[in-house]
Amino acid sequence: MATNLKLKGNWNILKGKLKEKYGELTDDDLAYVEGQEDQLLGKIQKRTGEAEETIKKEFFEEY
């Protein structure tokens, strides 16, 4: 998963949106460290089963 991702917007707002859309995500799943967007995307994808592209479009920007 060697992409250059950047979160879209404020992390706290995005975290709320992710939890709202994917209720199965836990705080541990959403533990975010700046610069580790790829790992976060992988955790979300693994937990929700959602397609990578769907998650990227909604919550990430690619550079």
TrEMBL record:
Residues 6-57 form the CsbD-like domain. It comes from the Bacteria. This is CsbD family protein. InterPro entries: CsbD, UPF0337_stress_rsp, YjbJ_sf. Belongs to the UPF0337 (CsbD) family. It comes from Algoriphagus halophytocola. The lineage of its organism: Bacteria, Pseudomonadati, Bacteroidota, Cytophagia, Cytophagales.
